[in-house]
Amino acid sequence: MVRTSPFFFENQRNKKRKEKTMVMLNCSYNDLKKAIGHDLSEEELRTVLFDMGYELDAVVGDELAIEITAERLDVLSVQGMARAMKAFLSGKPLSPYQVHDSNQIVTITPAVSKVRPHTVCALVKNLHLTDALIKQIIDVQEKLHATLGRGRRRGAIGIYPLEAITLPITFTAAKPQDIRFHPLESDREMSAIEIIEEHPTGKTYGPLLQGYDMFPYFVDAKGDVLSVPPIINSEKTGRVNISTTEIFIECSGHEQSVLDELLVYLTMMFADMGGEVYSMKVAYPDGSTRVTPDLSPQNKTLHVSNIKKYLGLELEEKIIEELLAKMMYTIVSKDKVKGEDVLDRAELETVYHLQAPRFRYDLWHEIDIVDDIARVYGYNKLPLTLPVVNTIGSRLELSRMVDELSEVMAGLGFLETYTFSLTGKEEQLVQMNIDEDKIDIVNVSNGNEVQTMLRVSLLPQQLTSLAINKKHPLPQKIFEGAFVVLPDETKDVKARNEMHFSALITDKTVSFTAIKQTLDALLASRGLEKEITIQKTEHPSFLKGRSGKILYQDKPIGIIGEVHPQVLERFGIASPVACFEINIEPLL
Fold it and tell me: Are strands 276-283 and 99-108 parallel, antiparallel or unpaired?
């Protein structure tokens, strides 16, 4: 029996191809060796990079292409890679980064609150730029835009020559026809409307401001426009050249944490170029202020027992300290505390109190520090051991039931889909006619504009699958068994997974009866058809009088019915759809 079909994943495959684009550091071999202060042969360089978890992808003359992992954007510049390699090779602690107070302020006005409400800013002085360094800066800026900035949607970067600007600076918004300046790579002054309609860069990034009546822009004390983020800088105030010695940096967007991270990467890169970093105060409309950037180290903790637990290594403290130094950790202190080893025998263990560089945004948990130790020690040197277990592994009953139900659906001629847990309110709520205020959801704080929440239902994404594949012949019958995520204050993470099972039929004509027969056949496979009842109900996603609440032992477990035409129109589906979705966990 066939459970999957390639055509349902046409769109997903295209997405995956884009996601597989590698993060590459392209730089000069000589520049990297000069920044490291050490002459490395190509083979030595390849070995060191491999031990650090990176790969020397190509060497063409003096040009290097180094593939880096997506979470280590701090090594996306020559300076960042040299910083990491110097510590790895020497084991010497990282010198602290100094941030001076500029006594300068950037004011955010209320006008910008609905379009792009946040910014973080800094000044860098005493720079000595060259054409090669400017090329590196542009390359890093664009790669940060593409990765962490998600194509400038989450955050956009602006770098300006300070000598062309009159401080203080204001971040505000106005109607696009009222914003006029001379944009980069243009021969004349233009309004923001003309820029998004006529300028090549404006055409590319203009859609990011689509739907907004007001456009954000930075303006100095003289009234000169610096830029309209996330689109383009001004020719007068936004072009850095080799005579520039002082710069103003701003990062603007919707998410404060993303902007902080972008600014840290940039200011540390400029500091490693020899520049002096100066902080700026950002003043919000509500009267609150923030001083940026924050380059102070992060406080971390490492329990030595976790090295034994996860790596199977019993290392002397001297060795541990050497390995930590190679990954740029500074040991502040260490304690002997009562702990538990892998055999659950209470004993005293060493706990290190560490400081990690601010740019190590990939350190989410103590296990990440253990992973760093494994990298420096060498994964190939780790001992091969068998796990100590006292049970025989078996599949969870819930997983077994999902597979059994899937086999039934395949036998009924349905095709299986796989959709993502990350989704957005537009798909899950708006297009389904559901009022956000009437349903509890789990929001995603660090997602993008599309992925803002975790799904609470499977049906919206399956409707999207039908819309993507509407060019294929009817009827189309699909199903899916997967987790949804629901808020739950009793859990430590304030949310819980719930296994749902759903099915949809679309054809030129389709009825409540057809999908009800499918549900009956599915439940009959487990002998539950007599324990299920359908109670007539009204639901905004379904036709009035053509939907029902699914009850198991008189308790609601799902919904069934014919999808409302307004919902179908919003998803772009021309043919009628009947569907059901149930929580199968009570059926165990």
Answer: parallel
Q: Please tell me the total count of domains within the chain.
A: 4
CATH of the domain at 425: 3.30.930.10
Instruction: List the 453-454 sheet strands across, edge first.
Output: 422-423, 453-454, 442-443
Q: Which of 236, 85, 90 is nearest to 160 (CA)?
A: 236
Q: CA 101, CA 112: separation in Å to the nearest integer?
A: 26
Over the stretch 232-267, which tens digit does the pLDDT of each residue have? Answer: 999 999 999 999 999 999 999 999 999 999 999 999
What CATH number is associated with residue 370? 3.30.56.10
Percent pLDDT > 70 in the chain is 94
Cα separation, 343 vs 235, whole angstroms: 66
Band the pLDDT of 346: cuts 50, 70, 90: low
What is the SS3 assignment for 156? Answer: strand
> Is there a single domain that holds both residue 457 and residue 522?
yes
Per-residue pLDDT at 536 exceeds 50 = yes
Specify whether 180 is located in the same domain as 62. no
Angle between helices 366-377 and 304-311 (to 10 degrees): 70
Do 458 and 578 reside in the same domain of the chain? yes
Range of the domain at 517: 397-587
Q: What would the two tokens of residue 24 be?
A: 């590459």
Q: Reduce the DSSP state of residue 38 to 3 states and report it.
A: coil
Is residue 227 over pLDDT 50? Answer: yes
| Number of residues written out for the chain | 588
Residues paired with residue 227 on neighbouring β-strands, in sequence order: 218, 233
Q: Are residues 348 and 445 in the same domain?
A: no
Beta strand pairing call for 99-108 and 169-174: parallel
> What residues contact 272, with CB distance under 8 A and at least 6 apart?
35, 77, 79, 80, 82, 83
Q: Is residue 385 part of a domain?
A: no
In-domain check, residue 188 = yes
* Single-letter residue type at 166: T
Q: Could you report the per-residue pLDDT of 198-214, keeping only the tens digit for each?
A: 999 999 999 999 989 99
pLDDT higher than 70, residue 14: no
Give, in order, the Cα–Cα distances in Å from 374 to each of 51, 86, 165: 10, 18, 48
Strands 330-340 and 346-356: what pairing?
Answer: antiparallel
* Domain end call among 379, 409, 427: 379
Asked whether residue 237 is assigned to any structural domain, the reply reads yes
Question: Residues 427, 452: contact at Cβ < 8 Å?
Answer: no
What is the residue type of 527?
G
Q: Tell me, what amino acid is at 161? A: P
Phi first, then psi: give them for residue 67, nearest 5 degrees.
-85, 125
pLDDT at position 340, please? 52
Give burial (CB, 10 Å; 0-12/13-18/19+) of 24: middle
User: Is 92 part of any domain?
Assistant: no
Distances (CA, A) of 107 to 160, 246, 264, 285: 17, 21, 20, 8
